[in-house]
Design brief:
The protein is an all-alpha fold and 74 residues long. It has a domain of 45 residues. Helix content is 97%, strand content 0%. It contains 1 helix and no strands. The radius of gyration is 32 Å and the shape is rod-shaped. The N and C termini lie far apart (108 Å).
Length: 74
C-alpha cells in the first residue's frame, strides 16, 4: 500500500509540473523561431547586397564595352 501511495505522489508531482515544462518549452520554441527568422533575414540581406554589388560591377563592365564599341565606330 505504501508503494502505491508513493507512486501516486510521484505521478501527481509530475502531472502538476508538466504544464510548467510545456509553458517553458513553448516560450523557448518561440524564442528559437524568432532567432531563426532573424538569421534568415540577415542572410537574405547579405545575399541581396552581394547580388547588388555584382550587378553594379556588371553595369560598369557594360559601360566600358559600350564606350569601346563607340570608339571603334569612330
Amino acid at each position: 500500500m505504501l508503494i502505491i501511495l508513493e507512486l501516486e505522489k510521484l505521478l501527481w508531482k509530475r502531472s502538476t509540473s508538466l504544464p510548467k515544462r510545456e509553458g517553458g518549452l513553448k516560450v523557448r520554441v518561440t524564442e528559437l523561431e524568432k532567432s531563426l527568422h532573424q538569421h534568415r533575414s540577415r542572410n537574405s540581406t547579405i545575399e541581396l547586397k552581394a547580388s547588388l554589388s555584382k550587378i553594379e560591377e556588371l553595369r560598369g563592365k557594360i559601360g566600358e564595352l559600350e564606350d569601346a564599341l563607340q570608339n571603334s565606330k569612330l
